[in-house]
Amino acid sequence: KRKEILPNPDCHPADVTFKHKSANLESSSQTGAQGGSVAKALLSDGSFHVRAVTRNPRKRAARELARLGAEVVKADLERPESLRVALGGASAIFLVTDYWELGDKEREVAQGKTVGDLAKKLGVRHVVFSGLEDVSRLTGGRLQVSHFDGKGEVERHLRHIGLPATCLRMASYFENFIEHFRPQPEGGGRGGYRLEIPMADIPMDGMSVEDLGPVVVTILKNRSEYVGKDIGLSAERLTVQQYAEVLSRQLNRSVRAAEISPEEYEKLAFPGAQDLANMFRFYRTRPERDLNVTRRLNPAVLGFEEWLSRNLHHFADL
Q: What residue stretches are annotated with the NmrA-like domain (predicted)?
C-alpha cells in the first residue's frame, strides 16, 4: 500500500493517517461524517493504508473502518502525548475540528492548533484542513458565527507557522435537510410542509458530506498543485424555493419555501439558533464556493436532487 490515513470514525476527536510510497499521511478528524467519508474514499482507492484514530476504538463506526481495512488506534485531540504516538511518521494529515461537540470555540481552536503545532514538529509534508471563514474577522465583529470563526482562526495559525496546508471550506451539507433543515408540517390542518431557511431569494451552496472523501483523495495525490490553496467546495447552488421544488418532486409532498428572516430565525427555540442565523446572514454575502473546482476534484459529486433520490428513506415519515 502506498498511503495511510486516520479519520474520525465515531463523531468524536480522531485522526487519520496516510502513507504515500515510503512516506506517511496522517489526518485528525473530530467530525465523524467528514472523517468517515475521507477514510472510506482512501480505502476504496486502494493505494492507501488507513489508520483511524479515535477516542473509542470500540465504537461501531471505528469497528466498521477496521473491517474495511483501516488500522484503528486510540488518541485524543486534548491529549498531545497520545497524538504524538498516533501521528508519528506521518507525511500528511486530514484535520477537522468540531465546534458543536465541544460547544466552545476556544477549545476547538486549541485542538486545531495543537495538531498543527505537532504536525510542524513532526515534519508533516501536507495538512488538509476542513476549515471555514472567520466571519467575525471578515465583518469587523458585526457578525459572529462561532462554528465558522474558530476554524478560520485555525486556518490562520496553520499558515502562520508555515505548515504546508490545503484549507477546504465546505458548503452547507445536504444532510442538514434530514434534521436541521427538515421540512416542517404546516399548521392549521392545511397539509403540506414548509422549508424554514432564511435566505430569501439568494442561492445557497450545498454538498453531501459523503462527496468530501474523493475530493481529499484527489488533493492528496496532487500535493504540489494544492498546497497553499484555500478551496471553497460546492456541488450545487439553489434558492430555498428551488430546494423546496426538488423536495416536493422527490418526496411526492407539497413543500413550500417559508418566508422567514434571520431575525425571526434566531428567536427559534433551539440551541445554536443565534449562531445559525448569523451563518445565514453570512451566506447571504455569497462566500466563495467553486462549483467547477469541486467537480474537477470529484467528478462524481452529487447534485441535490440525485442525493435526495438516494436518501428518501430518511424522509419516510413525512
A: 31-308
Sketch out the chain's domains with CATH numbers. Answer: 1-169 (3.40.50.720), 173-208+235-288+302-318 (3.90.25.10)
Beta strands 255-257 and 204-207, pairing class: unpaired
- Asked whether the whole model's pTM tops 0.70, one would answer yes
Can you tell me the distance from the alpha carbon of 124 to that of 24, in angstroms, rounded to the nearest whole number? 8
Per-residue H/E/C for the chain: CCEEECCCCCCCCEEEEEEECCEEEEEEECCHHHHHHHHHHHHHHCCEEEEEEECCCCCHHHHHHHHHCCEEEECCCCCHHHHHHHHCCCCEEEEECCHHHHCCHHHHHHHHHHHHHHHHHHCCCEEEEEECCCHHHHCCCCCCCHHHHHHHHHHHHHHHCCCCEEEEECCEEHHHHHCCCCCEECCCCCCCEEECCCCCCCCEEEECHHHHHHHHHHHHHCHHHHCCCEEEECCEEECHHHHHHHHHHHHCCCEEECCCCHHHHCCCCCCCHHHHHHHHHHHCCCCCCEHHHHHHHCCCCCCHHHHHHCCHHHHCCC
Residue 83: closest CA among 42, 106, 57, 54: 54
Give per-residue pLDDT as tens, 145-187: 999 999 999 999 999 999 999 999 999 999 999 999 999 999 8
